[in-house]
Structure prediction request, 336 residues.
Amino acid sequence: MGTINIFENIMKRNDEIAENNKKIINNALCINIMSSPGSGKTTLLEKSLKVLKNNYRIAVIEGDVSTSNDARRIKNVGVRAFQIKTENYGGGCHLDAKMINEELKKILKKSKFDFIVIENVGNLICPADFNLGEDKKVVVLSVTEGEDKPLKYPLMFKIADLLILNKIDLLPYVDFNIKSFKNNIKKINSKLKIIMLSAKTGKNINDWIEQLKLWYIEKNKF
Amino acid sequence: MHEVSIAEEIKNVVIKKLNENNGKKVKKIKLLIGEMTTIVPEALQFALTIVSENTPMEDCKVKIKVLKTKARCNLCYKEFFIRDNNFLCSKCKTHEIEIIQGREMIIQSVEMER
Ligand SMILES: Nc1nc2c(ncn2[C@@H]2O[C@H](COP(=O)(O)OP(=O)(O)OP(=O)(O)O)[C@@H](O)[C@H]2O)c(=O)[nH]1
Ligand SMILES: [Mg+2]
Ligand SMILES: [Zn+2]
Ligand SMILES: [Zn+2]
Prediction:
C-alpha cells in the first residue's frame, strides 16, 4: 500500500492543447460563442458574417452533437464552415481543445484567416470549463430564456468577455425585465459588456460587427 | 453528462501514475473540486465507477472535497466566501475582487496497492 500525492490539474491536458491552439491561430482573432440551445448563435453569425466577409477572411467551426445543419447554413451565406460532430469523440455536450486542434490543423494547412469563429454546442453549462485557445468568449442569451439565467448559470457569465442579449424584437411579448437582468449581471460580472440586438431584424447588429473589428484591430495593432 | 469526459481524463492520469509507480490496483482517489466549476460531485462519482469498470481502478474509493468559492478584495484585501452569486467585497462593496478559490479540478492523491 502506498499513497502518492499528485496534485495534478484535471484540465492540464486540455489547457496545454489550448495553448498550442493559440499558437496555431496566431494573428487571427478567435472567438468562442456559447449559449443554450436555440438562443440564436447561428442566426447571429449568418447575419453578421455576410457583411464581415467582404473585408475579412473568415472560417467558422460549428460544434454539434450529430448534425451538419449549422455548417450548411453558414456556407449558404458564402462563408467557409467546418463541422465538428462531438458524437465522433464519444459523446459531447461541449467542444474541447483537442477537437478544435484537429480541426484547426486541417483548416489552416491550406488557407489563412482573419477570423476563426467557433460556435460551441448549445449548452450553457460545461463549455464554460473548457478553454479552446480562443481570444474572446462570447455568451448569447435570448430574451425568451428569462432574466434569471445568469443567476442559475453564473460561471458562463463570469468568464464571458461579451454578452449578447438576442431576440429583443420579442421584448413586447415576453416577461423579460431588462433592469433586473442588468442587476443580475452586475452582481456576477460587473465589467461584462452587453450588446442588445435582434439577429432576426438586424437591429443593433452593427454594434456586434464593430466589436469584432475592434477586437481584431486590438490583437493586431503591434 | 460532461462528467464522463472528466472521469475519463482522471482515469488516464491515475492509471499512468499507477504504472509509473509499479502499482497493481488503485484503492482510493482524492479529488478537489471547486464550487465554481460545472462539475456535479455526485455525477462525477457515478461517472468514475462506470469508467473504472474492468480497469485497475475498479471499486476504488473516491473522495471528493468541494472547495467553496472564495475571493479577495483588491482594495481592502479582505478574503471572503462568495454567497448567492454576490461577486462583490463583503466589506467595502466594490466589484474589484479576485477569485482565489473555487475553480479547481485537481487530483490530490492516489492510494495504491503495489
Ligand atoms: N424572434 C427572433 N427569433 C430569432 C432571433 N434570432 C434567432 N431566432 C430564431 O431562434 C431559433 C434558433 O436560432 P438559431 O440561430 O438556430 O439558434 P442556435 O443558438 O444556433 O441554436 P443551436 O445551434 O441549436 O444551439 C430560430 O428559429 C431562429 O430563427 C431573433 O433575434 N428574434
Ligand atoms: Mg446553431
Ligand atoms: Zn459537456
Ligand atoms: Zn473590500
Summary: The two ends of chain B are 33 Å apart (CA to CA). Residues A 93-94, 126; B 1-2 surround zinc ion (ligand 3) (CB under 6 Å). The first helix of chain B runs from residue 3 to 20. Chain B has one domain: 3-69+101-113.
